[in-house]
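User:
Care to share a sequence and structure tokens?

Assistant:
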Amino acid sequence: MDSSWDKSCIKASTRDVEHMTSLGLESNINKTPEEKIFYYRRGIGQNPKNSPILVLIHGYPQTNFMWRHIPGYGRSAPLAGPHDKHSVGLAILEALRKLPIHPSEQKIIIAGHDRGARVCHRIAVDASSQSQFRLLGTIFMDIVPTLHQWASNSSPMGAVMSFHWSFLANVDFATVMIKAQGGDIFVRSLFTRWAGRNELSNKKLDEHDAIDVYAKSFKYESVIRASCDDYRAGAQEDIKLQEEDQKAGRKIDIDVLALYSAHYLGKRYDIQEVWSEWMGKGKLEVEGFGDGVGHFIAEEVPEKTASAMVAFYNKHV
């Protein structure tokens, strides 16, 4: 794909960075032009208890204001090649490898929402080939495997609910259309469609003008195009690898926590049943959130999401 990157996006507005660093996080904003992936970190190199590093990966159409950037999203540079989940996962792990990590900090747990969870799924299946880090577990937020997602789109209502999967996968066409409407306007409409029906949860979703931060990041063509290529890969390289995984019996051999919205994903799938088909030696835990909570569970119900994540993390310390 065209890997052009508008670097003006890095410091066009830093209000979100100021908020995140006020919470005790450290950003690499001054090194992003060279390091390519924008991220926050805390406690790296200061881990006397030898606890696993928790790696957090956001989804579409969000940015690191939820947590770290996927390549091509927000301030991060697009990959030079395709944005398939294997390549994106390797890029993120490579960025982690370059940090001043103590030898005792080679254990990691990865967690992702939406597209970030799909990156986590790919990393989890490939865990045995990872020599740099020892992957202890993974947390998937509000997804089913890509293969299941595309299969469900064969129903009329499934195709309507997930219209963006086929639309965005047509990269050139979708990029032009989104630019014509305005990337920020398009993103706001997606939040309206995918957020829940719980008024309190929706207020939490938009705390610190989060939706405005996400929307503004899509004013850049490089972000629109890279995110579309993410979906194109989901229709090509990613699904091909998942088909090969199932035929070869390559399963997930690490523990998995699958969190989901009962109102959003839970209406369409039996989450326990779907993910059980993909599990190998690992243990599967599933937890759904009700009360009209929508797709953005980490922000709509942050306390419940954090509680579930911490409990899972503590089991692997």
The chain has one domain: 7-314.
